Amino acid sequence: MNASRLCLATPDLARPPSDFFKELRQRVAAGARLVSFYGRPSDDPAEVVLTAVFDAADGLMVSRASILREHGFHSLTRDVPAFHIFERELFEQHGAKPHDHPWLKPVRYPAGGAARPSDYPFYKIEGKEVHEVAVGPIHAGVIEPGHFRFMCLGEIVHHLEIQLGYQHRGAEALLLRGSPLALAPLVETLAGDTSVAHAWAYCDALEALTDRPPDLATETWRGVGLELERIAMHLAGLSGMCADIAFMQGASTYGRLRTTAINTSMLLCGSRLGHGWIRPGGVRLGVDGRTVAALTSNLALIRRDIAIINRHFCQARSVGHRLRGVGVVSTGQALELGLVGMAARASGVEIDARTRLRGELGTQLPIQMVVETSGDCWARASLRIREIDESLAWLDAAIAGQTTPAAAPAQRGELAPDRLAISVQEGWRGEVVHCLETDAAGALRHYRVQDPSLRNWFGLALSVRSNEISDFPICNKSFDLSYCGNDL
Amino acid sequence: MFNALKVRLSQGSQYIPDLRDVTLVGFRGRPVIGEPPCEAGCQACRDVCPTAAIAGPEPRLDLGRCVFCNECVLACPDQKLHFGPDYRMASGTLDGLVVGPGKAEASPVAVSEALHRRFGRSLKLRSVSAGGCNGCELELNAVGNVNFDLGRYGIEFVASPRHADALVLSGPLTRNMNQALETGYAGIPEPKFIIAVGACAISGGLYADAPSVDRSFATRFTPSLYVPGCPPHPLTFVNGIMDLLGIRPPRGGA
């Protein structure tokens, strides 16, 4: 039994929509956390099938109903802001309008739609002293594109509006074109810095549909790939934050330690970003005595040297001055917005799929969840530092006594018909959610991808309110969100 | 103070002295295709390739499309293919990206005398990602880190197109980035050139037929350098540029 995975017969959709929305409110009121809310085309083109996924006391739970697109539905966002981005997405993809939505704006500008990025309806603040600063879509560094519009009073940011969609490729549509068993290379590029987490979520859902769950050794080696990815990207984030505050020893040392981490991934799977590590049915790794010895010694090197730079980073007055109290997101805001992953934990919200939704791997080899409470850039930096330590400790335990994993078998198996499989994996940014649904013939009829960035971008916007505009880069880097993962 | 010294001591010397001579362990790089002819009618490698990178009766692999997923290697009944650790894969032409059977020669990038004269001692790059998934962007950032340190040759990424000599393009070219890409490239002063990085930018890669991709920019402008990979290794990028600009290898290490 794996709590991060749910596979169920597609429920009967013949129920009044009002019951469905009542159920959503009841689940939220009962303390369930909204994981996802999305639509898929119905057999009847006039309708759209809505699916809400919750993380409730008993694990993942699903509510579904079919509604008329033309009628739309009454938005839940004013009462439960965590629905906000999901309802916008639903309207853009399926035309089902969430009536009375307070912020109904484009998300991705998909093909076929009339909306263009140049038409975005920015929020306006009027006043003699108010001025706007527009940045992007092309930014100063080597980074993905997006547009930021700051409404400022002097140097102080009143509101930041983040307009994305520039990266939209149409990935979800592509996922339905290929053989469902051969999607891993595409899945690994949904958000290229989260390749392993996305590949795992895909394989986990697929293996539920083919009813071929992997053994514990395979799961363990997948976990090794995921934690190496987390360590590498946390190091990249720390290096970037150091560069943004001109703490150059941190920038270069965290940066070169990241090189060691990703070269370790390359040694095992041939790719610095973990491409090819996870495939349906197993893993594809060159594990032998030599590579395990290199893995062990590389991790030892990271553990030894990171302690030295961490000490310097945490004790440097300039670092504390630039990070403490900057870009604060309160626990209440994080909960209300439905922030996930690292950003939520840095604001005191205890969610981590690795501990909350653990399966056999998480039971046999538990990992410690890390939580910070101050919700500022400092919390998002020290959370990374502590999570790297936890991942290193976990890797030690995981690798000890591990044997060579069985090679991934040829991809085969029929998908069970009329099933909905949902998988949640805790990537380095937060929960990666893949929802795969089959039709009566066992063909894939819908593929929903959800990167944690989709929900966390609004957290960044909130974090810079009442901060100086000069602190935006460090706030942005502290969240380190994916543009492609959002835009798909 | 002591903390800084301890960090300095632990850091040691991290730079790679000769960027042209590195042994990568485990890297899935330049493919090698065996000589003996394939079984007549065998399509195994072509059938599993997610980007239709393999063509011809004798397999010829187009690195401009290849995402190095290794599926073809596993599918081949005769083990004719494998990906070696060679990172030298960049080319100045699309033809130069095609690898056929036989001994794998590193495809040479022809030195451009004109580019050597203008940019051989200083080249400023402007990156534009148009649908790049952050894989290419991470590796492009890495070329400036303490390990690869491309800045030693006067080659670096700059913040504005106005300061740049070349456009480094990544991603399959999304429709929604079309206008910004046009404006960004127009903002680079002449003379200028384009470097296409990764399978997506070179051919569309996995996203060649994606609904919101529009490759009209790529049909109007021809890159001077193609850097294959998904994502390319920093050394593939570095060596491609050094070859193109005719930057000579260092004497006696650094």
Task: Give a verbal description of the structure.
- The complex is a heterodimer of chains A (about 500) and B (about 250).
- Chain A is about 40% helix and about 20% strand.
- By secondary structure, chain A is α+β, with helices and mostly antiparallel strands.
- Chain A is built from 17 helices and 14 strands.
- Chain A folds into 2 domains: about 110 residues, no CATH class; about 325 residues, Cytochrome-c3 Hydrogenase, chain B.
- In chain A, the strands form 5 sheets. A 4-stranded antiparallel beta sheet of chain A has the order 1-12-13-14.
- Chain B is of the alpha/beta class and about 250 residues long.
- Chain B is about 25% helix and about 15% strand.
- In chain B, the strands form 3 sheets. A 5-stranded parallel beta sheet of chain B has the order 7-6-8-9-10, sandwiched between helices. Chain B has a 3-stranded antiparallel beta sheet with strand order 2-3-5, with no helix packed on it.
- The longest helix of chain B is centred in the last third of the chain and has 12 residues.
- The mean pLDDT of chain B is about 90.
- Classes of the chains: A alpha+beta (about 500), B alpha/beta (about 250).
